């Protein structure tokens, strides 16, 4: 930790599927002064991967659809159209998780080495979740169906969209998942290169 914060106290206040830690800190301001004691609740989340699946021959993206409680509670469509994503298991690497999640959620076979897009914090003001975002090339021929792990009660439908339809969904607000928006904008910038 750099010299911006001094941790005075830390307590685990919730220890379920998600974990919540409460911190008491002081912060060194840009002018050099210290703040009074600040109390911050931080959700502790595991690292995860997100994978944009792109078929450069068909100029199509492979996405997944699944029902999510949070969008429904937020007044958005419960069924979200997203890139493949999942947690990195303990002892696994981001690339290992990429291959596992793509197989589990889409049934696709990755062609070549996935390309790293970025590693980012998904919401640095409230949680520790770090996302490793990739693009993987696939052959979308015959791709589709239902996937997901029964043990995790996943109910995933695979969707193949021509790039132009995907781009329209990006621009008109139908894609409301930040992982998918970020990967989609990256694809828009790199699509011509991937197609050569």
Description:
- With 196 residues, the chain is α+β, with helices and mostly antiparallel strands.
- The chain has two domains: 5-44, no CATH class; 48-195, Nucleoside Triphosphate Pyrophosphohydrolase (Alpha-Beta Complex).
- It has four helices and eleven strands, in the order E-E-E-E-E-H-E-E-H-E-E-E-E-H-H.
- The strands form two sheets. Strands 4, 5, 6, 7, 8, 9, 10 and 11 form an eight-stranded mixed sheet that branches.
- The chain is elongated, with a radius of gyration of 19 Å.
Task: Briefly summarize what is shown.
The protein has 196 residues and is α+β, with helices and mostly antiparallel strands. It contains four helices and eleven strands.
Keywords:
196 residues; alpha+beta; Nucleoside Triphosphate Pyrophosphohydrolase; 2 domains; 3-stranded antiparallel sheet; elongated
List SSEs in N-to-C order.
Answer: EEEEEHEEHEEEEHH
Instruction: Using the alpha-carbon principal axes, give the shape.
Output: elongated
Largest sheet: 8 strands, mixed
- Tally of domains: 2
CATH topological fold name of the largest domain: Nucleoside Triphosphate Pyrophosphohydrolase
Average of per-residue pLDDT values:
94
**Spatial gap, N to C terminus:** 43 Å
CATH architectural category of the largest domain: Alpha-Beta Complex
Secondary structure: helix percent = 10-25%
Radius of gyration based on Cα positions: 19 Å
DSSP, total strands:
11
CATH top level class name of the largest domain: Alpha Beta
Instruction: Provide the structure class.
Output: alpha+beta
């Amino acid at each position: 930790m750099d010299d911006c914060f001094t941790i005075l106290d830390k307590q685990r206040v919730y220890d379920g599927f998600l974990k919540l830690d409460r911190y008491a800190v002081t912060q060194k301001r840009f002018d050099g002064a210290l703040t009074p004691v600040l109390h911050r609740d931080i959700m502790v989340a595991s690292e995860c991967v997100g994978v944009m699946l792109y078929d450069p021959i068909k100029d199509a993206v492979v996405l997944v659809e699944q029902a999510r409680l949070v969008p429904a509670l937020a007044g958005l469509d419960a069924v979200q159209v997203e890139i493949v994503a999942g947690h990195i298991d303990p002892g696994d690497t981001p690339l290992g998780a990429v291959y596992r999640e793509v197989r589990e959620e889409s049934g696709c076979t990755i062609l070549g080495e996935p390309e790293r897009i970025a590693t980012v914090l998904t919401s640095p003001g409230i949680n520790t979740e770090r996302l490793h975002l990739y693009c993987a090339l696939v052959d979308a021929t015959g791709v589709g169906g239902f996937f997901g792990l029964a043990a995790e009660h996943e109910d995933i439908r695979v969707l193949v969209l021509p790039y132009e339809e995907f781009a329209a969904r990006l621009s008109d607000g139908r894609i409301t998942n930040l992982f998918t928006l970020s990967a989609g904008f990256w694809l828009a910038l790199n699509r011509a290169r991937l197609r050569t």
